[in-house]
Amino acid sequence: MRRFFSIFKMDLTNLFKNPVLVGYNTVFAALIILIMGFLTSGNYADSRNAYQYYTVTMLVYGILNGAMTASNCFMERDIKRPNLRIIYSPAGGFPIYFSKILASFVFDYVLHILLLAVFCPLLHVTLGSNPLYFIALMAPVEFAAVALGTFFCCVFHCEETTSMLLSLTVSLLCILGGTFFSLDGLGPALAFISKLSPVKWLNDAFFAVACDNSLALFWPVFLGAALISALLILGCRLFFRTEDYL
């Protein structure tokens, strides 16, 4: 256990020392919310609703992009070298990939909560009558996203390939799921296609908690993300090979 926490501490420290990742999850996310909210405010009842919409959808987008945080934590060139010492140590394989998952989760989760703490009072955005439900729902989705990124690293053994595939997949699912603009008003065909994207269900679950104070989708999404996380960790165990990581 002590070896695991030593590895976890190293991974978490490396993430917080990465200005690109810190900026992407804070400054970049904040600018996107402000710009999209400002540009589309005329299409909603008022600007507050626009900022409400993009705070939620861009948060989900940022959570899913946590998969790229995990791929960077796992296979970024400057990180791979010190990790070689871990591979040759008696720590075993599990601490190597699980510490990447846990460190990426803590990193993204903390920064996204800080982002909400700043933006909610600033833009008068609500997270529902009990914000703890909203924050609790973020946790398993964040964890599933970083587990997916680590799983892809275990399968493809290359950060560039992993990041490209993840970026393409996340962006496509988010476009179909209504992250940047809702497809519901563009006809029944596109509205049906939008429902096929899991991001649509994620957005609906977070909106239900934040805007309707409804927990109807809370447990399905919470338990579904937890199950997906467990399956992805099992997949990492099956596909992780130290010789491929070298």
Describe the structure.
- With 246 residues, the chain is an all-alpha fold.
- It has one domain (2-245).
- It has 12 helices and no strands.
- It has helices at residues 2-16, 19-39, 47-64, 66-75, 77-87, 94-123, 131-156, 159-176, 188-195, 198-211, 218-239, 242-245.
- The radius of gyration is 19 Å and the shape is globular.
Number of strands: 0
Count of helical regions: 12
Backbone CA Rg? 19 Å
Distance between the termini: 24 Å
Number of domains: 1
Fraction in beta strands = under 5%
* Largest sheet entry: none
Identify low-pLDDT runs.
none
Overall average residue pLDDT: 84
Taken in chain order, the helices and strands follow as HHHHHHHHHHHH
Overall outline:
globular
- Helix content, binned percent: over 70%
Oligomer: single chain
Could you say which structural class the secondary elements and strand pairing correspond to? Answer: mainly alpha
What is this entry, summarized?
With 246 residues, this protein is an all-alpha fold. The chain is 80% helix and 0% strand. It is globular, with a radius of gyration of 19 Å.
Topology (SSEs and partners):
Blueprint: H1 2-16, H2 19-39, H3 47-64, H4 66-75, H5 77-87, H6 94-123, H7 131-156, H8 159-176, H9 188-195, H10 198-211, H11 218-239, H12 242-245
Helix pairs in contact: 1-6, 2-3, 2-6, 3-6, 3-10, 4-5, 4-6, 4-7, 4-8, 6-7, 7-8, 7-11
Key words describing this protein structure:
246 residues, 12 helices, single chain, mainly alpha
